[in-house]
Amino acid sequence: xxxxxxxxxxxxxxxRNTVSQTGAELAAHNVRRxxxxxxxxxxxxxxxYAQVTASLDGAGVMHxxxxxxxxxxxxxxxxxxxAAAHAFAADSVLAIGGGSVxxxxxxxxxxxxxxxxxxxxxxxxxxxxALPVFTVLTLSGTGSEMNExxxxxxxxxxxxxxxxxxxxxxxxxIIDPQLQSSVPWHLTAAGGIDAMTHxxxxxxxxxxxxxxxxxxxxxxxxxxxxxxxxxxxxxxDELQRDGSDYTARANLAWAASWGLNGLSGSxxxxxxxxxxxxxxxxxxxxxxxxxxxxxxxxxxSWMEQVCHSVPDIFTRFAxxxxxxxxxxxxxxxxxxxxxxxGAPDRLSRWNIPASDIPRMVQxxxxxxxxxxxxxxSAEDVTSIxxxxx
Length: 389
Description:
About 50% of the residues lie in helices and about 10% in strands.
């Protein structure tokens, strides 16, 4: 097992009716003026916005609304949010939404201290200063409510790149699973698949088992990953039957939060993250592609590309997660589960032409070298995309 530092500073307030505690939590952090960041109408329709603002008013926290955040939030939107934060003299940012809303809120929080947000992204260096970030989660999957990353799309460049820094970790995240009871199934499934892939990006870095015992170098972390994956799978299966099942919503929400707060990567050298780079190149060029659905298409194709090179960990995954015998069967079982949950399995869902693949390959490779498990060439990446056209 590699040396690692694990730090998860976010305070989680979890459970029924916890939204009412939002104002008190912000006030405890000496917040006086907060920029409320939301998406479309969901926060209003579910009552989350009304509950949050009532709680803020009760705690004497002033607020102003910045709404209209879309999936795969754009740099242009972030810059408008930064201007809104300056105009209101906000001393914090409060996101009410899922991963896109939270990422946008984080970007705004950092951006108020930056002369040029995208220039900072391109330096690849962490930010060290940001307004305090708080979240009220309404859609589980990205884990952004408990980590230090914000992913934003520069649409003119077709680059969907991240900014990071411990200062972007939310101070407090409110997770009330009741707020997700009316989330449509396709969004629930996409969020769950996204959460699974976060765990899997780390898991497949597991190093060779001892021949006699099957005991891996990172056995503790791998078993944690397997438990999180099984919890997500069970929760999705239950929610597909009954979307109002509070227990399943709660378990999915908690598993997704732990899937990307550093726990599932401890001792695994930072994971691989090739599939996320390939999906970011896809949805950076085609922002209409939902992140979780894009991963549902790309991740099994990446698995198929590399599983024969590291058979031990892929065979373990097949056996412990799906109850099948071989790495190839594990890839097939993953595809079948994603399909069972209604996720797409082809880029044709969004009419992506083969002519776009060279640009996606170029964008994916422009961020960093791909393939920590198995180094990938441009030809390899082309194969991963082409396989699922």
